[in-house]
């Protein structure tokens, strides 16, 4: 069986875990957590990166720091994970779903423009498959309408748009280090903060509402409860595991890109014959090979292809059921404009196995089987 996903593992994770234990500090914000934060600050050129317990919690922190009020409206794609919406729903916001660009599966900025009204407070672009949304146009819309931007960059660690790291355009960017991501700590995430006014507020929120970070920096004599907060600090054991992959950051990235390119080149003839569609990466986007997907011609064909590949030992997966059609989506949100592409394109998309050290022979087998399916 060729699995759909294998969590990234380089081989030095155990060494880091042992060192974290020997450091006698495993609760968070120790040596490895700080190393991870510094790495992403330097890599992305963002002001501050705070490691979190999940990408979901990074989104939740962003929603609270922005100060969402009940009845505020938040615009986002319907084709995203529930966490993108939940972060704002828990603050009482109304979710406004809009259509996607079918070529990239990203939010369509023209649909955003038509959905903005006096209640709109935030735009939440999600960078699907590590391919950047049109952030120049989205930021223009935000500036013209005095709106905040929170980037759901869960899939976009080490992806860039016009030379700038995804997650650094809006006020906040949110990363995920779930086991399905390019770099993993099992469960984990990071909040990228791009405006200085939010840094201390975020530290307080992350540290149970205390000014503990200021105390450790020697800025106050003692720390105390100063505002609402929760515990968003990841375990030092988790960040120790992640840092082993950060130490070989580019090796992992290059390996995934090699697999992505092999898929693309070997499936290109099938695409040119009109049987499938391949991923589209616009000019100005540098992606991270987070996933490789193809699009069948319709839902029925995709279902038959999934079954065929499974029968032949290949694990695949479709992706999101559009949120606006889900029970919670109907309860907490509405779709603005016409659903021209979101549902139709989501029913065609099929993700193929993609992970660090995917065997080229397995890629060859998968491509052979897809060709065999369509030759029938």
Jot down its keywords:
about 375 residues, alpha/beta, Aspartate Aminotransferase, domain 1, 2 domains, 3-stranded antiparallel β-sheet, 13 strands
Characterization of the model:
By secondary structure, the chain is α/β, with parallel strands linked by helices. It folds into two domains: 13-246, Aspartate Aminotransferase, domain 2 (3-Layer(aba) Sandwich), CATH 3.40.640; 249-375, Aspartate Aminotransferase, domain 1. Helices cover 40% and strands 14% of the residues. It has helices at residues 13-22, 31-44, 55-66, 82-89, 109-115, 135-144, 199-206, 212-216, 236-246, 249-272, 299-311, 327-332, 342-346, 360-375, and strands spanning 48-52, 73-77, 94-98, 120-123, 148-152, 160-161, 164-165, 172-176, 189-193, 285-286, 292-295, 333-335, 349-352. Helix 10 runs parallel beside helix 14. The chain is globular. The two termini are 23 Å apart. The model has no long low-confidence stretch (mean pLDDT 96).
What kind of sheet is the major sheet? 8 strands, mixed
The percent range for strand residues is: 5-15%
Computed Rg: 21 Å
Structural class, from secondary structure content? alpha/beta
Ordered list of secondary-structure elements with their pairings:
Blueprint: H1 13-22, H2 31-44, E1 48-52, H3 55-66, E2 73-77, H4 82-89, E3 94-98, H5 109-115, E4 120-123, H6 135-144, E5 148-152, E6 160-161, E7 164-165, E8 172-176, E9 189-193, H7 199-206, H8 212-216, H9 236-246, H10 249-272, E10 285-286, E11 292-295, H11 299-311, H12 327-332, E12 333-335, H13 342-346, E13 349-352, H14 360-375
Parallel strand pairs: 2-3, 2-4, 3-12, 4-5, 5-8
Antiparallel strand pairs: 1-9, 6-7, 6-10, 8-9, 11-13
Helix pairs in contact: 1-9, 2-9, 3-4, 10-14
């Amino acid at each position: 069986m060729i699995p759909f996903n294998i969590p990234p593992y380089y081989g030095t994770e155990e060494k880091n875990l042992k060192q974290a234990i020997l450091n006698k500090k495993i609760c968070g914000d120790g040596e490895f957590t700080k190393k991870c934060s510094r790495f992403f600050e330097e890599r992305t050129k963002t002001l501050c990166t705070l490691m979190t317990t999940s990408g979901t919690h990074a989104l939740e922190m962003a929603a609270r720091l922005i100060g969402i009020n009940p009845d505020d409206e938040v615009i986002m794609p319907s084709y995203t994970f529930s966490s993108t919406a939940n972060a704002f729903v828990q603050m009482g916001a109304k979710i406004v779903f809009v259509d996607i660009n079918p070529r990239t599966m990203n939010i369509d900025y023209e649909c955003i423009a038509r959905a903005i009204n006096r209640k709109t407070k935030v735009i939440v672009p999600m960078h699907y498959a590590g391919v950047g949304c049109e952030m120049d146009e989205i930021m223009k819309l935000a500036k013209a309408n005095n709106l905040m931007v929170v980037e759901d960059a869960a899939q976009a660690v080490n992806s860039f748009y016009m030379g700038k790291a995804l997650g650094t355009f809006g006020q906040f960017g949110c990363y995920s280090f779930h086991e399905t991501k390019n770099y993993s700590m099992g469960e984990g995430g990071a909040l990228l903060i791009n405006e200085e006014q939010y840094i201390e507020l975020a530290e307080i929120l992350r540290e149970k509402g205390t000014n503990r970070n200021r105390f450790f920096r020697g800025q106050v004599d003692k720390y105390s409860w100063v505002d609402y907060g929760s515990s968003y600090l990841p375990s030092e054991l988790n960040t120790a595991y992640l840092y082993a992959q950060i130490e070989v950051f580019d090796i992992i990235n290059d390996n995934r890109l090699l697999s992505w390119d092999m898929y693309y080149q070997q499936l290109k003839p099938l695409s040119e014959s009109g049987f499938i569609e391949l991923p589209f990466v616009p000019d100005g986007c540098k992606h991270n090979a987070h996933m490789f997907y193809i699009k069948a011609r319709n839902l029925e064909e995709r279902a038959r292809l999934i079954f065929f590949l499974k029968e032949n030992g290949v694990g695949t997966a479709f992706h999101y059921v559009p949120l606006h059609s889900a029970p919670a989506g109907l309860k907490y949100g509405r779709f603005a404009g016409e659903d021209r592409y979101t549902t139709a394109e989501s029913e065609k998309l099929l993700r193929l196995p993609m992970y660090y050290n995917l065997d080229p022979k397995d890629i060859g087998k998968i491509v052979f089987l897809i060709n065999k399916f369509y030759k029938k």
